[in-house]
Design goal:
This protein has about 200 residues and is of the alpha+beta class. It has a single domain, classed as 2-Layer Sandwich (Beta Polymerase, domain 2), CATH 3.30.460. It contains 8 helices and 5 strands. The chain has a 5-stranded mixed β-sheet. The longest helix is centred in the middle third of the chain and has 26 residues.
Length: about 200
């Protein structure tokens, strides 16, 4: 994926060992590093890991663990809760919102990609509804670049939670490598094709 996650295979193994001590491996639906691409977590010594777990009794749980020099924030979430957040913003996309950013799956990649596209379809429809309501006379002649949906979604997140600007600043200012931006945009393109 172009990230230096391979250079830190030991960290990945420690992450797997930790979550295997918390949940049954058979119940793990998907696991992804969330913010590696944005702030180069292996340089700053911090990472965030999302785990989607089948029939997770606690519904949601977080934990912070330090492995060598890396602080890792774990977010365990029940599959049903995660899917409701994707489908209808059950938690304001607080969990599903990680799918609008570059993420690095290391279990359940197809599951995460499927839900990424579902989420982006819903977000595109919401943005289109807002445009039609805001500009009813222009709505029939508008031509919208796909990038609009990607950037407007990110800016909406920042409007709701301003501290996100620190996490997203590199992405929005063009510092993040183009292949990572393309990866996020590809999800929107796939969602647009599904809506056509």
């Amino acid at each position: 994926m172009g990230l230096r996650m391979n250079a830190s295979g030991l960290l990945v193994q420690k992450v797997k060992d930790y979550y295997a001590s918390v949940v049954d491996a058979d119940d793990v639906v998907a696991v992804a590093f969330v913010d590696l691409a944005l702030k180069n977590a292996f340089d700053v010594g911090a990472a965030q890991v999302l785990l989607v777990v089948r029939d997770f009794k606690a519904r949601m749980m977080s934990a912070v663990k330090v492995f060598d020099r890396y602080s890792v924030f774990f977010l365990f979430v029940d599959q049903w809760v995660f899917e409701r957040d994707v489908d209808r913003g059950f938690l304001g996309e607080g969990l599903a919102g990680v799918l609008i950013l570059p993420y690095v799956p290391f279990e359940g990649a197809a599951y995460l990609h499927h839900h990424e596209v579902l989420l982006k379809k819903r977000l595109i429809l919401e943005l289109l509804e807002d445009l039609v309501l805001s500009f009813p006379n222009l709505s029939f002649v508008m031509r919208i670049k796909p990038e609009y949906f990607m950037y407007e979604t990110l800016l909406n997140r920042i409007r709701v939670f301003p501290p996100l600007v620190y996490t997203l600043s590199d992405f929005l200012s063009g510092v993040v490598p183009i292949n990572m931006v393309k990866r996020v945009l590809d999800g929107y393109l796939e969602a647009l094709e599904g809506l056509a």
